[in-house]
C-alpha cells in the first residue's frame, strides 16, 4: 500500500472548518483513500473514503487532487468532540488490512 | 445503530497465562479483524478472518495467537502464553465485505500482563 504523510498536529477553532491534509504521492490507480479517526483511546471510527472524485457524507468532505497524490479531509464546522487523531490510509481493493500511521492530532479549541 | 462489542473492557493477567478476548461483530458482517495498539504507539493489524479461515495475518500474529468463530456471533482472539510485551489495547473490527468496505471497530479490550 502507498505510504501517507500527515502533519503531526493541527489546531482549529470551534465552529470553523478543519482542513486536514494528506500526501500520498505513490498511490496506485486501484488504491482508495480512507480516513478514520480515533478519539482518545477509543476504537478507530470510519469517516469517509474515495478513489478520485470528491466525496461528501454527513461527517465530512474528502477532496482528492486530480493527480491523486494528495487529499484533504474537511470537517465543515468543527466541534470540541472532533478533537481526535485523524488517519489517512491508502487501501488496495484486495487488501483486507488497514495500515495506520501516526496520523494528525486535531485539537479543536473553544 | 449496530455496533461491535468487546469483552472484557480490561483484562489483567500474569505472564505465561492464556487469555481469550471476545468480540461480537455486527450481525450481517462477514469479515472480521483484530488490531492492537501498544500505549502511545500506532494501531497495528494482527489478523483478518473470513469464511472460518484466516485471510491475512501480520508478523506479530505468531504461533502464540489464534482466532476462532466458535458460534454464529462471537469472534475470539486467544493468546496462549502471554508476555509482558503483549500488554496493549486490542481492537476487534468487522466489515460487510472486504473490498472498499469500511471497518467498524469495537471499543477495545485493555490487556495488562504483569
Can you walk me through this structure?
The complex is a heterodimer of chains A (110) and B (114). With 110 residues, chain A is mainly beta. In chain A, 0% of the residues lie in helices and 47% in strands. Chain A has no helices and nine strands. A five-stranded mixed sheet of chain A has the order 1-9-8-3-4, with no helix packed on it. In chain A, strands 2-7-6-5 form a four-stranded antiparallel sheet, with no helix packed on it. In chain A, strand 6 and strand 7 form a beta hairpin. Chain A is globular, with a radius of gyration of 13 Å. The N and C termini of chain A lie far apart (37 Å). By secondary structure, chain B is mainly β. Helix content of chain B is 0%, strand content 50%. Chain B has strands at 5-7, 10-13, 19-24, 31-37, 43-50, 53-57, 65-68, 75-79, 88-95, 104-105, 109-113. In chain B, the strands form two sheets. In chain B, strands 2, 4, 5, 6, 9, 10 and 11 form a seven-stranded mixed sheet that branches. A four-stranded antiparallel sheet of chain B has the order 1-3-8-7, with no helix packed on it. Chain B is globular, with a radius of gyration of 13 Å. In chain B, 35% of the residues are buried. The model of chain B has no long low-confidence stretch (mean pLDDT 94). The A-B interface holds A 32, 34, 38, 41-46, 49, 87, 91, 93-102 and B 4, 31, 33, 35, 37, 42-45, 48, 50, 55-56, 58, 89, 91, 93, 98-100, 102-108.
Amino acid at each position: 500500500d502507498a505510504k501517507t504523510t500527515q502533519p503531526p498536529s493541527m489546531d482549529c477553532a470551534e465552529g470553523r472548518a478543519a482542513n486536514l491534509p494528506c500526501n500520498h504521492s505513490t498511490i496506485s490507480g486501484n488504491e482508495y483513500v480512507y480516513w478514520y479517526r480515533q478519539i482518545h483511546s477509543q476504537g478507530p471510527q470510519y469517516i469517509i473514503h474515495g478513489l478520485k472524485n470528491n466525496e461528501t457524507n454527513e461527517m465530512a468532505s474528502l477532496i482528492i487532487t486530480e493527480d491523486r497524490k494528495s487529499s484533504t479531509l474537511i470537517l465543515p464546522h468543527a466541534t470540541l468532540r472532533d478533537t481526535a487523531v485523524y488517519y489517512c490510509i491508502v487501501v488496495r481493493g484486495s487488501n483486507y488490512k488497514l495500515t495506520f500511521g501516526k496520523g494528525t492530532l486535531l485539537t479543536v479549541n473553544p | 445503530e449496530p455496533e461491535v462489542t468487546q469483552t472484557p473492557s480490561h483484562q489483567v493477567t500474569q505472564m505465561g497465562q492464556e487469555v481469550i478476548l471476545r468480540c461480537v461483530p455486527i450481525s450481517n458482517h462477514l469479515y472480521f479483524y483484530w488490531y492492537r495498539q501498544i500505549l502511545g504507539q500506532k494501531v497495528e493489524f494482527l489478523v483478518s478472518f473470513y469464511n472460518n479461515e484466516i485471510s491475512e495475518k501480520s508478523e506479530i500474529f505468531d504461533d502464540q495467537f489464534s482466532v476462532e468463530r466458535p458460534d454464529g456471533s462471537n469472534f475470539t482472539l486467544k493468546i496462549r502464553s502471554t508476555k509482558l510485551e503483549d500488554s496493549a489495547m486490542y481492537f476487534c473490527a468487522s466489515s460487510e465485505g472486504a473490498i472498499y468496505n469500511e471497518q467498524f471497530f469495537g471499543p477495545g479490550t485493555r490487556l495488562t500482563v504483569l
